[in-house]
Amino acid sequence: KNFQLYKTKTTDSLRMPNLSKLARIPDSKIPLSILAGFTGTGVLLYLTNRIFNGTTPRSGDLGIKLSSPKRTEKVSVDLKFIKNVLMLLRIAVPKVFCMEMFYLVLVAIGLIARTYSDLWIITNGTAIESSIIDRNPVRMWKHLSKFIISMPIISMINNILKYGTSECKIRFRKRLSDSLFANYLHRQTYYKMSNIDNRISNADQLLTQDIEKFSDTLAELYSNLSQPVLNIILFSTILARNVGIDAPFNVLVYMVLSGVFLTILRRPVGGMTAREQQLEGEFRFVNSRIITNSEEIAFYQGDDREKRTVDKYFSKLIDHLRKLIRFQFMMGFVDHIVAKYLATTIGYLSVSIPFLDLTTPKFLNATPQRLREDYYKSGRYLVRLAQAVGRLVLAGRELTRLAGYTQRVIQLRDVMLDLDQGKYQRTMIETKEGEAPLIPGSGRIITQDRIIKFEGVPLVTPNGDCIVKSLDFEVTSGMNVLVCGPNGCGKSSLFRILGELWPLFGGQLIKPKKEHLFYIPQRPYMTLGTFRDQLIYPDSEADMVMKGVNDEDLTQYLEQVQLLNLLEREAGWDSVQDWMDVLSGGEKQRVAMARLFYHHPQFAILDECTSAVSMDVEASMYQHCKKEGITLFTVSHRKSLWQHHEYVIQFDGRGKYEFKKIEEGVDEFGT
Asked: Which of the ends of the chain has fewer CB neighbours closer than 10 A, N or C?
């Protein structure tokens, strides 16, 4: 009776208002359940928005107490997100003819092949079941044999699709990692990001985990979006031809409405994903600090204090993950109703109308067998169409997560590009009234060999703390300079400006190229690799050969620092060890001096680099530096080193300094 009423009221060929007409049928209860479902999801939408805005309808109603984190940028699926994804895609797929494009095309072909194989399986399966019902064994075995023969082909199609998707993940990650690491390890960007700019605190996680998750999500999304779109087009066309335009049209309109509804509901996911990755990075950073400073913590017996710190950051991460789980619970409930069950309900209603309508021209003279086969196939097609619609709607969930990963990767890329151009953001110390503001990068650097000259250069830290208002002195090759003064007076800051690690806040600095300056800190860095690599760092073995240096020359450098015994002890130049642990403090300092002899720069910046070396070995190394024509800039409190220098820069720790010649017999310089 209800469907007869529907038939008499509908005269147009395009019958989208089917559901609204069914809703007016007094005896129909299905549309009322649909309305109730939408009402329930609407209530969940209201509750979710209230919860994630930091409030609830009434205190204690849901038992959830959330603190809204400080957000620097809104994360959502919008035009900016699309622009950022396309920007990263140009890196991941740099040109039309490349292996990445090949695998994208392979995945597309696999998706098309799987869609047509699904179509064939439906048709063949219908024939098998129909022949069983008709008790026709010959026809049943005929179609069953076709299915058995096709199994290897269908299996191969599915595995080709998985293989292509996996290759896309790996290749996207490699392209993005190569591009970002090229920027990260260029012009000391890694140092500036950690010590000058304070926008990113966990670059290691961004360069590893976040790029991996972005690449995986992007490759999966390509498959999860393309397959449903293809299925929707194909099955809609077949259904329109078999049962009319109404059925696919209703399902597609429902897809649009439900997609908009769920997109609004999923808005918090992008920001929560970015926040999750940030908290994961902070937790990893806290743990890495314990490993890096384990000896100091052990001496201070700081076990309990460090545990409290770890617990604090871990609790922040766990609290956020609980919020995310609660949100995913509610979203999962709504997703399944809207994208699966309601979509299937709409499909059943739409496909049944032409069969229940006794005046449908196509089925007026149809036999029961044909009606059964047509309905079975149409039902299968519509179920596949509804599933495709559901997958497409649920793909929005992954799209929102991709927005969070995209925002993190784009932020890393933007910060690195800014630092490469000399721009950085940092909390600055306020300038006193009446003083001119300090502008980072406002100074000028001129490259010239065999001279270091400061002209009106303020000694300023990256956060704007002025240590010395103006440095004015000149050092040429052969003028060995000792730098001294109390802690915090600016000795190391002077070398950071000289090495172009810190920006100039004014004045003019004349200095040689970076390769003509060589810095040795108090705790020398030992790289991963062979014993040979320790002496020639940062050169490779190929660079060493190009310079005309061989292992015999390296042996002489070791002899100068009295470390020949290491060659025998560590089994030669090609030995690979964890050199930071194998070598003692004094041995590492002497290896660093041998490294200095290998590079033979114009100027050597030595920052307490012989504090763990005996005085006789120290004197021998300094004498060899002067013999080789290496001009010394030395920070040291040892009076034994004054004899190896001719000039001194003495800071008083109150913003003043003195540059003067060392005169023999003066008490302050020793004897």
From this structure: N
CA distance 74 to 267: 10
Residue recorded with tokens 């009423």: 5
Secondary structure of 576-591 in HEC code, one letter for each residue: ECCHHHHCCHHHHHHH
- Contacts (Cβ under 8 Å, ≥6 apart) of 118: 231, 384
DSSP-H helix ranges across 209-245: 211-243
Antiparallel, parallel or unpaired: β 603-607 and 631-635: parallel
Residue 610: Cβ within 10 Å count: 25
The CA distance from 52 to 329, in Å, is 14
Residue carrying structure tokens 């890495």: 288
Neighbouring C-beta atoms of residue 574, cutoff 10 Å: 13
pTM of the predicted model, to two decimals?
0.70
Alpha-carbon distance values, 412 to 233, 423, 466 (Å): 39, 14, 29
Q: What is the tens place of the pLDDT at every residue in 393-404?
A: 667 778 878 888
Range list of H helices, 134-245 = 137-184, 189-195, 203-205, 211-243
Backbone angles phi, psi at 616, to 5 degrees: -70, -40
567 burial (CB, 10 Å; 0-12 / 13-18 / 19+) is middle
Give me the mean pLDDT over the 301-313 stretch: 82
Single-letter amino acid code for the residue at 645: H
Strand order in the sheet with 657-661: 517-520, 603-607, 631-635, 481-484, 647-651, 657-661
pLDDT digits (tens, 9 = 90+) for 575-630: 998 898 889 888 999 999 999 999 999 999 998 888 888 888 888 999 999 999 99
Average pLDDT, the chain: 79
DSSP 90: H
In the block, tokens 């985990």 appear at 209
CA 473 vs CA 396, 454, 513, 581, 607: distances in Å: 63, 5, 19, 41, 20
